Amino acid sequence: MSTQTKEDKSTSVLKAAWLIMVVTIVSKLVGFVRDIVIANYYGASLVSDAYYYAYQIPSLSLILLGGVGGPFHSATVAVFSKLIPSLNEKPSEQVNKLYSTFMTATILFFLMLSVLMYIFPRQIMGLIISSGSAQMIDLAAMHLKIMTPLLVIGGIVGIYYGILIIYKQFMLPNLSPIIMSLAIIGIVVAVPSDQKGYALAWATTVGAILQLIIQYPNIRKLGYKLRPNFEFTNNPHFKEIGELLFPAILSSTVGQIHIYVDMFFTSSISEGAWTAIGYANRIFQFPVGILVTAFLVPLFPIFARLVADKDYEGIRNYFNKGVGVLLFGAIPIIIGILVVGTDAVRLVFERGEFDANATFMVTEALWFLSVSIIPYVFRDSITRVYYSFNDSATPFAVAFSSIILKVLLNWVFISKMGYGIGGITLSTSLVTLFNACVLGYFITKKMSMNYKSLFVNAFKMIVAGVIALGVCYFTAVQYDNYVVLPKFVFESFKILLVAFICLAVYIPLNLSFKMEYAKELFTHLSAKFQRK
Length: 532
Known about the structure:
Elements: H1 3-42, H2 46-65, H3 71-83, H4 93-119, H5 121-128, H6 134-146, H7 149-166, H8 171-175, H9 177-190, H10 199-222, H11 236-266, H12 273-308, H13 312-349, H14 356-370, H15 373-388, H16 393-416, H17 421-442, H18 451-482, H19 487-512, H20 516-531
Helix pairs in contact: 1-9, 1-12, 1-13, 2-6, 2-7, 2-11, 2-12, 3-7, 3-11, 3-12, 4-7, 5-6, 7-10, 9-10, 11-16, 12-13, 12-14, 12-15, 13-14, 13-15, 13-18, 13-19, 14-17, 15-17, 16-17, 18-19
């Protein structure tokens, strides 16, 4: 690959990353407003616990399997991107036939699962939250029954996402989750107080249907038409999808089993504990999800094409840059969570039914979860490389092996050491670290990786981060001791002050350490502003 081509691709990835980042920020902000509305009306209560317990099953399809970065999206990108020579032409008959076969198989499979979920909701929830009360299980079962359509919708949306991203239509896949958030906000606010019991489940289902509807016109416009096709055995490309998809689905399902393990242990802690962990996860995903989505969505098709061209040097280059930029942005997030996490949760959520106890539970979960950001971005990045090699079996095997570790850690932290909510998220962080290390080792069986350069830069960033953490913590303590302002103004100004000081210390330190990603990003931004 020529230097010019590499530079063009690098610029293209950066432009796509900025676009996706802006769109994802908007989507996440609307999602945050949704969470504030839910917290205001439900707090951390029995009803909210029941909804979030039930939602974990259909979310497996809608978010984990079908969402951006999920198996259906990943399989679509990995296989279809190699079959489409020109993005300016309508898909060939062969590609359309593969699309129809893939869609038919997906709809049939998830339809069968939906029927089972609709018939046996109480048995399913009773198995998962066996330590919960009978009232909790009944409420969760009804929520689950209402949300059964999400299973079918999730798989279809995942295929739609993959196709749109191949054609570089990054905006719609990342913007459409706003539809679900707006549906939940509108329905929860509109429903009378005495009828809000199942409003969340109905709102989620309506939002998912709208999310599907908004994708469809663009798919048709690109030339993809669904004609039921049951030739599942005579299409080598469908076999390729299956070989990639099946282990990836199992891998995501194994990830969901980790959540079910957490649900089992959490149901014995306290009322509202699972809701608190859910809020902590969403706060965690707000900045981290923006970073990961922004850089890995445009990088994944490039990985797939580089593997097809056997350009391993290109893969190493893009992987190190991608992970390096993600880590550069992740470390200030960790600092912010550790220093002003409580203030942020109190500022955003503490009103209505969401009280000080709920704030403490969410913050406790968030503190222990924050340390997983570094292995999280590495694991998600290296997984895309595996998928580019059409290997989803290895990520599955690694995720499957970590189930025992997850159970053991939860048992030690919750049952033996009594860590409570923090024990759940601490075990999650340790399992994420385990997965990242094992996946990072086994990828070297396929190709050599230049980890030395990555780890040297990561070490520089961590040193800069530790120094910035100390300065920010000292600032926060002095602020609490000497500044007196109304609650909202006090917390808002404190968060902004700590963020400013963090960046003012962290960025110059990285530049002085000659951390190449910081230098490259600074040069790129400086050139952009000079042009303006």
